[in-house]
């Protein structure tokens, strides 16, 4: 058994026993009251999931296994001192619950680059069967489903494996799947935007460095950006659309490919991960309409007000849980201010940040007027030369695999049962609260 799986087995057995005892001894305790409004407005604030990998605080933002993003940038292993933490280390932290050693990270890097070379040919045939004009998320999700022919989990289930051991083939499938996503994403990128001139994996590189390399970017700077991007988008507790969907589908004992593809279909929605692409279209139209790539603050104000007047949302702003600026936005802005302070798109993002929150506040209904992760990620990628913004949600998806698939392994360790909440008709809700029309 490899060193990561061995450690997972040890911590997994302990925590699964604790959960069993907790439910046995306290299963009947009331932990929350729920209002009618909460149910009808997207179940916001309703505690309904067990997720260990990360926790979101409305004011402070995300913490991965208790560590904030600035802490992680100090504590996680890096390639070199002024570089960004390696996503492999964040994966280890989310999966095991402990900070990794350099050797753990090196092990995962090597393991993933070995596993990445095992993608069957039919997966590329399936991608090639789609028109190049199909959105990259269509191609990405189709490829993920096509890879499920390789599922260890499905095979073990069919062979009658004891359910207490399900976590083991789930771990194998997850490691295969994560290792292969950069290859698939880069293949789609080169297919759609670079005349099918594909670039082979470099087994000496780390996971995110390889992603940049296979997309055609060899500079130290883009590799550093890719490591940051892959860390920042990895997880956002259990209730967001991509995480919750992956978990939900997994509770039917669907294999990791089915579960993750389902989550990615949710990420492809414009109110979730696709907002990173929406922001770029919004900026592009702004620049076109105003006729300058350096619009004034007054021009931005007017454009934003028009967006609202047309009944549309301002992409990259607002959040279902956060009530302050997303620290993932701040980290990217700090990165841009440090390395590319004069990039026109970054200047535009800084100006939008100064004027948009007050416009959203003035609506009187937006609960969070501050920017989220998507408000800047595309402008940062674009400023480094990754300008084809239809690929951005795919990059988000590659990163999101780290968190939601670690959680999927834990779902099987905990033996989480089928998720099946209750629904009611409008009549039931009316009667419940004594409503008269
Ligand atoms: C990685 C991520 O998923 S981060 C989020 C990415 N999505 C975006 O950036 C899209 C723009 N933002 C939004 O649409 C929302 O803020 C969401 C989807 C993120 C959160 O939605 P909710 O939790 O329902 O937000 P909230 O409770 O503040 O909504 C209240 C009202 O304000 C509106 N509102 C919220 N954010 C915005 C915005 N950025 N622009 C305009 N209106 C907004 C809502 O549409 C809603 O209007 P309604 O009552 O007429 O339906
Ligand atoms: O938490 C959410 O609902 C959305 C989000 O920011 C993410 O999933 O990264």
From TrEMBL:
Under Enzyme Commission nomenclature, its number is 2.3.3.16
A biological process term (GO) from this entry: carbohydrate metabolic process
Q: Pfam families recorded for this chain?
A: Citrate_synt (PF00285)
Identify the pathway: Carbohydrate metabolism; tricarboxylic acid cycle; isocitrate from oxaloacetate: step 1/2
The record's InterPro entries line, in alphabetical order, gives: Citrate_synth-like_lrg_a-sub (IPR016142), Citrate_synth-like_sm_a-sub (IPR016143), Citrate_synthase (IPR002020), Citrate_synthase_AS (IPR019810), Citrate_synthase_sf (IPR036969)
The family database entries (PROSITE patterns) matched by this protein are listed as:
CITRATE_SYNTHASE (PS00480)
Broadest EC class?
Answer: transferase
Keyword Transferase set for record: yes
Q: Which UniProt keywords apply?
A: Transferase
Q: Origin, by domain of life?
A: Bacteria
**Molecular function terms, GO-annotated:** citrate synthase activity
Q: Which family does it belong to?
A: Belongs to the citrate synthase family.
Instruction: From the Swiss-Prot or TrEMBL record, give the protein name.
Output: citrate synthase (unknown stereospecificity)
Per the UniProt entry, what species is this protein from, by scientific name? Geofilum rubicundum JCM 15548
């Amino acid at each position: 058994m490899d060193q990561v799986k061995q450690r997972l087995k040890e911590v997994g057995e302990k925590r699964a026993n604790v959960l069993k005892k907790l439910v046995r001894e306290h299963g009947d305790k009331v932990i929350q009251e729920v209002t009618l409004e909460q149910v009808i407005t997207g179940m916001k604030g309703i505690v309904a999931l067990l997720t260990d990998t990360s926790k979101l605080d409305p004011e402070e933002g995300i913490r991965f296994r208790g560590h904030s993003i600035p802490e992680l940038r100090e504590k996680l292993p890096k390639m070199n001192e002024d570089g960004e933490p390696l996503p492999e280390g964040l994966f280890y932290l989310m999966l095991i619950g402990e900070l990794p050693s350099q050797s753990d990270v090196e092990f995962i890097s090597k393991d993933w680059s070995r596993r990445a070379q095992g993608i069957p040919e039919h997966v590329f045939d399936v991608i090639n069967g789609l028109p190049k004009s199909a959105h990259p998320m269509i191609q990405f999700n189709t490829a993920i489903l096509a890879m499920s022919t390789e599922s260890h989990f499905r095979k073990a289930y069919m062979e009658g494996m004891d359910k207490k051991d399900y976590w083991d083939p789930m771990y194998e499938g997850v490691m295969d799947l994560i290792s292969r996503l950069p290859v698939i994403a880069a293949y789609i990128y080169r297919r759609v935007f670079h005349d099918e001139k594909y670039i082979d994996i470099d087994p000496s590189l780390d996971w995110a460095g390889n992603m940049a390399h296979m997309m055609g970017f060899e500079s130290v700077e883009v590799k550093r950006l890719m490591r940051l991007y892959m860390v920042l988008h990895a997880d956002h507790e259990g209730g967001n659309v991509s995480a919750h969907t992956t978990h939900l589908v997994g509770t039917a004992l669907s294999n990791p490919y089915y579960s993750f593809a389902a989550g990615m279909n949710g990420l492809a929605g414009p109110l979730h991960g696709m907002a990173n692409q929406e922001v770029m279209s919004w900026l592009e139209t702004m620049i076109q309409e105003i006729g300058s790539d350096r619009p004034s603050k007054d021009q931005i104000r007017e454009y934003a007000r028009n967006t609202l007047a047309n009944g549309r949302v301002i992409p990259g702003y607002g959040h279902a849980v956060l009530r302050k600026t997303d620290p993932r936005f701040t980290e990217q802005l700090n990165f841009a201010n440090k390395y590319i302070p004069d990039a026109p798109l970054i200047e535009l993002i800084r100006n939008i940040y100064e004027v948009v929150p007050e416009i959203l506040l003035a609506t009187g209904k937006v609960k969070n007027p501050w920017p989220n992760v998507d408000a800047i990620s595309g402008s940062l990628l674009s400023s480094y030369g990754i300008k084809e913004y239809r690929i951005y949600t795919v990059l988000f998806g590659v990163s999101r695999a780290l968190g939601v698939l670690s959680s999927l392994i834990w779902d099987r360790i905990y033996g989480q049962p089928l998720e099946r909440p209750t629904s009611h008709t409008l009549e039931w809700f009316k009667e419940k609260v004594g409503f008269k029309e």
